[in-house]
Structure formats: C-alpha cells, structure tokens
Design goal:
Blueprint (H helix, E strand, L loop, with lengths): L11 H10 L23 H16 L5 H6 L3 E3 L7 H5 L8 H23 L3 H22 L21 H19 L7 H4 L7 H18 L9 H9 L10 E3 L12 H6 L12 E3 L1 H9 L5 H4 L41 E4 L1 H13 L7 H16 L4 H11 L13 H15 L5 H11 L25 H6 L1 H5 L16
Antiparallel strand pairs: 1-3, 2-4
Protein name: SusD/RagB family nutrient-binding outer membrane lipoprotein
Pfam families: SusD-like_2
Organism: Niastella koreensis
C-alpha cells in the first residue's frame, strides 16, 4: 500500500514531480529558482483541495462499490453477462478489495496533505473542510474493512509499514477530528476560499452542519452497542447548529461537462458515454428492489430506473442467477433521478440521508423533536431529491397508503421497532447513492424482513459482515496485516454489530 502516494487527476504531473523530489535538497549549483517548475513549495493546499474534493465524489460514485450496490439489492447483472462467481457467492479472496483500498487511501492522502499545507500557512478553514471530507471516507473504510491503518497511515518514509488502529478507536478519533474541524472552520477564511471550495462554495454553515451530520452518523452506527451513551456528542451537535436539513445537500461540481473524463462521476460510471451509449451495460435494476417498490406503487422507481429499451415495464434481474435473467435491452438501466445529466452535481451526502439519521436519533430519545415529523420530512426530501413530480404530495400519498411507510404502523412501538422502520425507508431512499450505509444498516438492524436481496447463487452462504483485508496489505505491510488475526467475511463482525 502506498500510504504517501498523491492521487490527483488534474494535477497528476505536477504532484508526481513532488513525490519524486521529496527529500531532495538544493545543491550549491542551484542558484536559480524556476517559477514554472512544480515543487512542494508552490503546490499549495488551494491547488490540491479542489481535485481532492472532486475525487471524494469519484470514490462515492466508483465502480469499486458496485459489489455493495449488488449485495444490498439495488443492482444486478443483465442476462447477457456472466455472473461474477466470487461476488455472487460471497466467497471472496484477499485481492477482492485491492482497488477499493488503494483508491480510497490515495484520496485520503490528498486530503491529509491539504490539511497539513493549509495549517502550515494558517488557513484553518481549508484545513477544516479537508478534515470533514476525510471523515466521510474514513468511516466507510472502517465499515468495510474493520481495523485499518489510521494514525500512522501517512507518515511517509518514517513509517513505511503503518500499524493498524482498532475500528472503535478510529471512530473515537473521527469524533475528535470533526470537533477540531468545526473549530478550524470558525477561523477567518481566505478571500479565495469560496472559489477553492467546489463543494459548498464557501458556505461555512453547510460545512459545520456536514461535520455534525457525520458525527451523528458515527453515533447511529453504534446504537446497538451495549452501554453506548451518545449524550456528550449529541450535545455538541445540537449546540453547534445541528445537522443537514431539506435542501442542504453536500455535492461537488468543479464544472462537469459532457466530454471524456469530464462528466459527473456517477453519470460517467453508471449513466452514458459522451456519445450516448450506456456506460455500464451490465448494470441493471435488481428484481428484489423493483418488486419492493412496485408493491407499494412507489413513484421513485421510475426515477431510479428506466423502462427497457425493448419496451415494457421497468424490469429487474435476479442477483446471482447464472441463467434466465433478461438481457440488457429487456431489463432496466439507471434512471433520470440518478443519471440526469453529464453536468449534474456529484453527491457526497444528500440531505435526506442526514434527515433519516436525525429521525432515528429522535426516535431513540437522543435528540429533541417529534420522530414522526422528522421521518416524514426525510421521505419527502427523498422524493424531492430524485425529482419526483409533485414530490410532497406524492410522498404523502405513498406514506399514507402503505403500512411499510406509514408511521401509524410503528406509533407506540418500542425504540428498536421504530429504528428499523426508519432504516427500512432510508434503505429505499438510498438506492444508488450510499450502498455502504444501506449495508451497514442491514448489519446493524437487520431491518429488511424480506431477504430477497440475498444472492441466489447456490454456492452462497450468508451476506458478508465485512470484506477481507486486501492482498496488497499482506504483501507490503504483512506483519501489521497478519497481526489482525484470522478474518472471516462471515463471522468477524465489526465492533458495532450486535
């Protein structure tokens, strides 16, 4: 694992020079400075941050996470493509997560470097923004792999083989980091910050609410841990402005256009090429999800997926079925709510996801408010975000007409029942946008009573609780990787799993 590699598409050449020149000293013949030459001194935090922020969006839209989209029942493979035996059987090997691991760490390093460079010149606001984005990715990494290198990950030649931190310790460290980020964000922003900030355009309130939302996400994940008490962290969240609400979406857009390598990331990976061809012709709707939304007349279905090119209703494919699935032209591809335009904003954290988290926190008695109101607002925001016509009215009709969405179903029920109810509707709302969150909720609450999302591959046992550490770690950081002991994707639960 290259824990000190810079991964920057726009600045690739510039930053490669930095890596090559790290540690070099000026010799006695170096009497002139070339202002056009890339050096560690003139590649600033402001140059790195926009591309790092873009790449956070790239990671969340990445095909590296396609397996999670499939595992939780959102996507499946078209019938004219051979199924992936390792993925659909859940019998994965150590190389299964190599690309995901390395790509995530590359972006996390860019954000780390942004923070270090920003603090070195007194730009606490840019440092804080980088720390918030980092927390978004770090939690996903823990929720996918468990223990990982964190505190020693980017120490370069000083720590070439970083030790692993315990997952629970990383969660605690992320809470502290987000507290620090919120303090940094209250500093005086540079006059260039709004232009540099391609996420929130200089809106400090949104950055603060985003940090608070990530703090709540960390807490909600631990809700089933015996004796867990979130009171102190909840107090900080509420005292510092609360979490993201309707319309407060965290997106990134450096100026996406319909050109090669310049499209919005999810559109580029799961939408269409610049010439209008399907970018991922093997990706299709999952029959489980199509049936679920059809059973409740949920109008979001036509926003998630589109009718087959051969005509007919929205049609899914059964995940793990080796023969008999409809071919591509007879099955449904991603729809306009997810892939509306090559220029669309790339989501990092949609407001509706934050609102579902808040609804569960209220239901658990952690935060003040009325759980039903918070829940119903989250569902309405999901309809709005997807572009459902007459979204508020449509959402109200959906909730009133379906027991699985009508709060009356769980009114007066215990906390766990209400939490599962909210999480089940959050699952419906997150198709395509945050499969790791959906997988985490399934592992945390087992809230989907219909297990039809499980692969039908005859070789499969049960849905994995994690994936294995990547082979690249056993190769380049073997002692520390092996120190984590024997890991099973089926039995080695994360600390927050009941």
């Amino acid at each position: 694992m290259k824990y000190f590699k810079i991964n920057s598409r726009i600045c690739a050449v510039v930053l490669a020079v930095i890596v090559a020149c790290t540690g070099c000293k000026k010799g006695y013949l170096d009497v002139n400075d070339d202002p056009n030459r890339a050096t560690d001194a003139n590649v600033t935090a402001e140059l790195i941050f926009p591309n790092a922020a873009h790449n956070v969006g790239v990671r969340l839209a990445s095909a590296n996470l396609r397996f999670v989209q499939n595992w939780v029942g959102y996507f499946a493979q078209a019938g004219d493509y051979a199924i992936l035996q390792d993925e659909t059987s859940y019998i994965i090997n150590f190389s299964f997560g190599d690309a995901l691991w390395e790509n995530e760490y590359n972006v996390l390093f860019d954000l780390y470097l942004t923070k270090q460079k920003a603090l070195a010149v007194g730009d606490s606001v840019l440092a804080g923004a980088s720390m918030v984005l980092s927390a978004r990715l770090w939690q996903d990494m823990v929720d996918i792999y468990g223990n990982i290198p964190y505190s020693k990950a980017f120490q370069g030649v000083l720590v070439a083989q970083p030790a692993y931190d315990k997952a629970q310790d990383i969660y605690a460290a992320l809470q502290t980091s987000l507290d620090s980020a919120n303090i940094y964000l209250q500093g005086t922003a540079k006059s260039t910050f709004a232009a540099t900030d391609i996420v929130n355009n200089g809106n400090i309130t949104l950055w603060t609410k985003f940090a608070n939302t990530l703090k709540l996400r960390l807490l909600i994940r631990q809700s089933q841990v015996n004796g867990f008490n979130p009171a102190a962290e909840i107090a900080k969240i509420q005292a510092n402005g609360g979490v993201l609400h309707a319309g407060e979406n965290i997106d990134v857009n450096p100026g996406y256009v319909n050109d090669v390598n310049k499209q919005s990331p999810f559109y580029a990976n799961f939408g269409f090429t610049t010439t209008g061809s399907q970018a991922s012709p093997s990706t299709r709707a999952n029959t489980y999800f199509v049936n679920l939304l059809n059973s409740t007349n949920d109008p979001r279905l036509s926003r998630y997926f589109r009718a087959p090119s051969a005509g007919g209703p929205i049609t899914g494919c059964v995940y793990g079925l080796s023969a008999g699935n409809p071919i591509g032209k007879k099955s449904s591809y991603t729809g306009p709510g997810l892939v509306g335009s090559a220029t669309q904003n790339q989501w990092i954290f949609p407001a509706f996801e934050s609102m579902f988290l808040e609804a569960e926190a209220i239901a658990r008695g952690w935060m003040t408010g009325v759980a039903q109101d918070a829940y119903e607002s989250a569902v309405k925001e999901s309809f709005t975000w997807l572009g459902v016509p007459n979204a508020t009215t449509a959402a109200t009709t959906y909730m009133s007409g379906n027991p699985i969405a009508n709060w009356a179903t769980v009114a007066g029920s215990n906390v766990l029942a209400q939490a599962k109810f909210i999480a089940a509707q959050k699952y419906v709302a997150m198709c395509g946008t945050d499969p790791v969150e959906a997988w985490s909720d399934i592992r945390r609450l087992d809230m989907l009573t219909d297990k039809g999302y499980i692969s039908v591959n005859a070789s499969r046992p049960i849905l994995p609780v994690r994936i294995l550490l990547p082979q690249i770690e056993y190769t380049s950081n073997g002692d520390n990787a092996r120190a984590q002991g024997t890991i099973s994707q089926f039995d080695s639960k994360l600390f927050w799993q009941p």
